[in-house]
Design a protein that fits this description.
Dihydrodipicolinate Reductase, domain 2, binds 1,4-dihydronicotinamide adenine dinucleotide, 233 residues, diaminopimelate biosynthesis, 4-hydroxy-tetrahydrodipicolinate reductase, binds the ligand O=C(O)C1=N[C@H](C(=O)O)C[C@H](O)C1
Amino acid sequence: MKIALVGYGKMGKVIERIAQERGHEIVLRKKSSDNFDGLEQADAAIEFSVPDAAVNNITECLNQNIPVVSGTTGWLEQYHNMAKLCEEKNGAFIYASNFSLGVNVFFELNLQLAKMMSKLKEYNVSMEEIHHTQKLDAPSGTAITLANDIINHSDYSSWSIGNPKENEIFIDAKREENVPGTHIIKYDSDVDSVEIKHTAHSRDGFALGAVVAAEWLANKRGVYSMKDVLNLT
Ligand SMILES: NC(=O)C1=CN([C@@H]2O[C@H](COP(=O)(O)OP(=O)(O)OC[C@H]3O[C@@H](n4cnc5c(N)ncnc54)[C@H](O)[C@@H]3O)[C@@H](O)[C@H]2O)C=CC1
Ligand SMILES: O=C(O)C1=N[C@H](C(=O)O)C[C@H](O)C1
């Protein structure tokens, strides 16, 4: 398969290696707002760039009718516009805040735990996410997905990285050198606490998930998620 890398930073480079190991050819390595030359040859585009560029990049892929997998975080207020554009163009689009298999299992664990804990009013939930110091957005896209899943199954109504009000989930967004991505969800009561944690050891899991998603999406039409790709539940 021919793959366009739209965004060629830390993730783009790991995706390139894993895509080539799986027999794919890279036809575009786009690093900035310069042109999209090569995109037209691609069977799928994999978009890991910066929050300010994601909407323009996804729009261009959909306008050129190239299936697009996006992992860029920090632009999600525009997600519905991108999904709508995809439907209008009869295109193919997947966004995931986290493409790793382990985190997608963790998303399901979080949902189950949130449903159980919603019945136990003595526990308060909080989250911690730790990432490398170059990360532009906070909290992480993964933390937002986890928080929204808790909100949809509990009395919590929003999240906050500052001083949480009642009914807000506190997300402690920490930045430390060379951390690929760690997420912890903690339910605390006076007598005990229950925690679940996912630790990425490298970026390989994110990159493999994105390549598998591109392989899955290449001949499809529609708006999908990693739930569709992995079929975990
Ligand atoms: N969904 C997931 O599984 C994961 C998502 N991410 C997200 O992916 C994004 C990229 O992460 P990294 O590669 O670590 O960041 P990075 O900063 O290493 O790379 C981003 C690259 O995008 C380039 N860029 C800037 N403007 C561009 C434009 N208009 N078009 C194309 N490229 C442009 C920059 O030059 C840079 O090389 C971030 O938003 C991050 O949060 C990261 C890891 C996993
Ligand atoms: O910027 C990163 O590095 C990561 N970003 C994603 C996020 O914001 O959740 C996924 C992963 O945790 C790494």
